[in-house]
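W.,

You were right to be curious about this one. When I first looked at the sequence I had no strong expectations either way, so I just let the prediction run and decided to look at it fresh. Below is the sequence, 364 residues in total, followed by the output.
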Amino acid sequence: MKPRVIALYLPQYYPFKENDEWWGKGFTEWTNVGRAVPLFKGHYQPRVPKDLGYYDLRLSTVREQQAQLAREAGIEGFCYWHYWFGNGKRLMETIFNEVLESGRPDFPFCLGWANHSWYAKNWNTMDTSGKDKLLIEQTYPGENDIRTHYELVLKAFKDPRYIKEENKPIFMIFDTSTLPPNFISLWNKWAKEDGFSGVFFIGNMKQKDTSDPKEYVKLGYNAVIRQRLTTAIFKQNRNKFSLILKKILSHSFGKAEQRISYKKASNFFIDVTEDSNENMIPVIIPNYDHSPRSGQYGVILTNSTPDLFYKHCKKAINLVKNKKNKIIILRSWNEWGEGNYMEPDTKYGHGYIDALKKAIDESI
């Protein structure tokens, strides 16, 4: 049985009211992507999309093309980021609603709840603590809201395209630390009443979370992922003097302070011992460069290539070969503002898509 690669998917690329109010008329993620500039010699910016161009996700033809590219990569489905802030307040729901209502593309999906507040980040300073403006707050009003949220998502759960594990619809929780303690038990109870075997909850362990993953299982999570994207940078910056010097150079000369080679960083993305656990889900990362959003203060992985990504994928796939749970999370399908994407660009074309497909095919 081949690995079940599920790609995180950002449903953002179209104008909507709140973005217009916060960032200016017509703002989308492409606004940041298009104005990105190289910050040092050899820095790969700007990133320019190839096959799909600077697309508008309101076009169903674009969504069909995305699904076809994902199929070519061997990806099982998309995990659409889902935004529910409490009391029925949602954002960026238009695209997934259209996917659900239209039945197109005929491509599997699940949902990941991005349960966090939104802030207007003050990137252009060395110290951003306490200076970010709250745009919209994530709230948890109580059990009635938990039920309303469940009923909204239930329609998606019942869609034949929805990705399940042992008759449990997969649902990811971004911020496990703020989730109401009765949320998981209530959703499991209601899902069983609606004919499922419960909900397959995936918890997201943040970079600095040193908890034992088994503690998440005790809380009701079926599996967890641990974000290790910046582990290499944290290890590199343990020396306080070195970190201070980097900040000074960044502030004075515009040098990116948090950059490291993808080749070096990718050695930390997978922990063979921990990720071999049945309840751990490996995460594969093709590339990452946050500078379109945050300039010189962003995390930048340099010199990522399809060949290096292929080797990274092989490592993750080998880990799940003998596991019952063969899920692998791909971060991400289309996070262009974070330089974190699989979609073709003008430099590598279908390179990352072909690399993942090759790694999957070799595992069968």
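Here's what jumped out at me. Residues 143-157 form the longest helix (15 residues). And, maybe more interesting for your project: The chain is about 35% helix and 20% strand.

Coffee later to discuss?

I.
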